[in-house]
Amino acid sequence: MKHKLMNFLAKFEKGNTEQSFPLDYCLPVYHCVSDERLPHLDHIIRYKNVKQFEDDLDDLAKHFQFVTWDEFKDFFKGKFKPRKKIALLTFDDGFREFDEVVAPILERKGIYAINFINPAFIDNQDLMFRCKESLIINAIKNSALKNREIDEKDILKIGYPDKNRLDDIAEKLGIDFNFYLKQQKPYLSFSQLQSLTKKGFGISAHSWDHPLYHELSLEDQLENTVKSIKYIKENDFLSDSFAFPFTDFGVEKVFFENLFENEQLSFTFGCAGIKVDCINKNLQRIPMETGENASETLKKEIAYYQFKKFLNKNIIIRK
Ligand SMILES: [Zn+2]
C-alpha cells in the first residue's frame, strides 16, 4: 500500500498538471488582488499582489482553457467541447479591487470571472464580521497602552452569532467601522456591480451577510441563501448560481434538496479544494490565497486528492 502511494506521489514530481488534474474542470477562488495593505483583510486573507495574480493566471492558462459561465454550464450539458480541461475563475465577497484591479487585468487577458457577493455589504452599508475582527486586531496591535482586557486571539473566535459583540469592542477601542467604510470603501458599489455586468462579468449570490452555515439552523441557512438569490435576481445579476460563504462543511442534504427546488439554480459552490461532492450540483473550488503560487497549490491539491482517493475518502459525504 505504501509502495503504491509512493509510486503515485512520484508521478506528480514530474508535474504534468494538465494530465494529472483529476477532474474535467478547475475552479479557482480568490477574494482580492492588491498591491496595497488592506487593514480589513490583514488577518483573514492572504490576498495576492498584481504580479502574483498575473503569474497565477498565466500558469493556469497553460493547463486549462478559461471559460465563461454559459460555456461552463454548456460543458456539463455536453454542448460545449473545450480544447483542454476547463477553468472557471471565481471571486468571493465583492471587494472594490475586483473592479479597479482585477477586471482590467482580466479584460486585457480575455478571461471571464464571477464575483459572488453579499447584498448586505453593497455600497459599503456594513462590513463582514471577519473584516471587523481584522480591524480590531490591528487596533490592539497598534495601541501603545497595552489595554489587554481584550486578547487578539479571542477576537477571531467570535463567530457570526455573536457578531454584535464586535461593535461593542470596537466602541471601547475607539474604532469607527462606519468611518472606515466611508474612507476605505472596501466593497463594490451598486453602480460598479452594474458596470461589471455590462463588461460581461458575472455577479452572483454568496448569502445575504456571510454567516458560517454550520452555525445556523436549516431555516436560517435557507433564509440567508434565498434572500441573497432573490436580490440578485431582482437586480438582473446572475441568479442561477450560489457560492457558500466560508465553507459548506456540515451543510446537510436536506438544505440542498430544499434549495434545488428552485429549478433555475444550476450549481452551488464550496471551497474544499479538489473534491467530489455527494451532491452532484455542489462543486468544490480551489482556494488560491494560500501564500503559494498556482503551480504549487495545484500540485499539492492534486497529490492530496490522489491520496484521499487511495483511501476512498475523496468524496464529501453529507448527512
Ligand atoms: Zn466569502
UniProtKB/TrEMBL annotation:
CDD domains associated with the record: CE4_NodB_like_5s_6s (cd10918)
Coiled-coil stretches: none
Domain of life: Bacteria
A GO term from the CC aspect: extracellular region
GO BP term, pick one: carbohydrate metabolic process
Domain NodB homology: 81-130
Compartments it resides in: Secreted
GO MF annotations, alphabetized: hydrolase activity, acting on carbon-nitrogen (but not peptide) bonds
Entry keywords, A to Z: Signal
Protein name: NodB homology domain-containing protein
Organism per entry: Chryseobacterium aquaticum
